[in-house]
């Protein structure tokens, strides 16, 4: 059974100003688990294969959930399970679902069974010679069939009749494990093998070599140090809700990052240029995850509104819903640069970027407020964002920094009008 979720007044108010905290994040996670289960239920009903296969997977999921609901939630509520369920559901609706899209659920069920201490023995799909072990890694199989076997809390793979223990942290021949970025009191997966990690505006990177992974891990540790020193509330929130990062392929353009709306607690990014940018990017993208999760519970804008708006952080005209997403994310960005001003080595950069981010938020929020297309909970959200934005604008800054930010915004608006004369008119 799934549960109907709604945010109580205090939780909504805290989230509306751009904060949240671990308790609010836990509530959003519970709602996302229900969403995953609803989509899984629909995929089981539409199962294209043998009914016995479908029934076996469904039974394993039910027994795992009954045996240990918390561990079950960790596996089935994982961000990339959300990514898979969204991709598979859309493919089903478009009539292009592949049997392996459904088969991914067998791997999820087997991993959940091992985590919850119940037995399972399920065949999993092999794509291009590789079998996915969700949350754990990718297993080279060649042309051999693969089964995942849970027994006594351990997970074993059977590849063409050869069994290998997957549980534990040791090396397993043919298994590319999902590796963790680590810092004191936090571990976040850097998943470069899951077959459903795509969907960002840039393709995911292929498996990182050890040197590249160590570079990511080092920079993450430095970024996490900045967060815990200067933004402890944000660090606590991220520790509670950010579970996975997906490295994206790089090109000649600047660093990029993106969040998928149906995958709470994961986002894709290229390696940021600095620890400060890494820290701010984590806050920025997790803001998108939070608002997307809130929008799963309650609508904010009139779906019939067709207006387009100027967003200082984009070159294209934005629909109202997209503009609201940007405002919510950049409230977090501005708040982060404000906190990082206390870090001596980057104080000047942080002050400049704080000034730019807060005036951009104010400009975007003004358009949202004037739209006339906010639904009741959208009005409540925007009221909280106005409270936080006014607080950011009240922060004293050097006159020359404020003036430079105003000039930059004016130049951005001019260029946007030149590119988008119809929307500007």
Automatic annotation (TrEMBL):
Record-given protein name: HEXXH motif domain-containing protein
InterPro entries: AKG_HExxH
Top-level taxon: Bacteria
